[in-house]
């Protein structure tokens, strides 16, 4: 976070939850030589929880919109899992690489796990000023 006095970088001294864990209060101090301005920043934890709830609600709505398609997808997933387990067992018994067994059975190898992509976030205002989720408290001492 940037110091509101001199626009230099700051360091967190203390971090504590407030308002029942809905807000995190962080004591910060400026690291610039000669400034040493200390202030509080308030960061909301509600945004993360609300986003996860919206994503879960969207998935439930999708599954409700076409339940037959959702059931078919579940059947396909369980069938492919069972085939893969069988292929792994055969690879272990024969000593062949799993990729060779999967190719012989015409099964696509599982995709590698990719890191979760982070959605683009708008830059937060300095000291979370004007944030709708930040309580109206004195932000500086």
> What letter string, H or E per element, gives the SSE order?
EEEHHH
Low-confidence stretches: none
The count of β-strands is 3
Name the assembly state. single chain
Which sheet architecture does the biggest sheet show? Answer: 3 strands, antiparallel
Q: Percentage of helical residues?
A: 25-40%
Shape: elongated
Explain what you see:
The model has no long low-confidence stretch (mean pLDDT about 75). The longest helix has 28 residues, at about 65-95. Helix 2 packs across helix 3. The protein has about 140 residues and is of the alpha+beta class. A hairpin with a 7-residue loop joins strand 2 and strand 3. It has three helices and three strands. The protein has a three-stranded antiparallel β-sheet, with no helix packed on it.
Essential attributes:
39% helix, 3 strands, alpha+beta
In short, what is this structure?
This protein has three helices and three strands, in the order E-E-E-H-H-H. The protein has 141 residues and is of the alpha+beta class.
Describe the secondary structure blueprint for this structure:
Layout: E1 10-18, E2 23-30, E3 38-44, H1 46-65, H2 67-94, H3 98-104
Antiparallel strand pairs: 1-2, 2-3
């Amino acid at each position: 976070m940037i110091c509101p006095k001199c626009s230099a970088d700051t360091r967190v001294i203390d971090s504590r939850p407030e308002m029942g864990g809905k807000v995190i209060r962080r004591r910060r101090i400026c690291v610039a030589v000669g400034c040493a301005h200390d202030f509080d920043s308030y960061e909301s934890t509600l945004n993360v929880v609300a986003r996860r709830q919206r994503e879960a609600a969207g998935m439930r709505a999708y599954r409700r919109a076409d339940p037959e398609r959702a059931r078919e997808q579940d059947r396909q997933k369980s069938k492919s899992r069972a085939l893969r387990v069988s292929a792994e067992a055969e690879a272990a018994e024969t000593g062949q690489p799993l990729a060779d067994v999967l190719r012989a059975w015409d099964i696509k190898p599982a995709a590698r796990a990719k890191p979760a992509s982070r959605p683009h976030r708008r830059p937060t205002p300095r000291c979370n000023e004007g944030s709708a989720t930040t309580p109206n408290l004195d932000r500086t001492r």
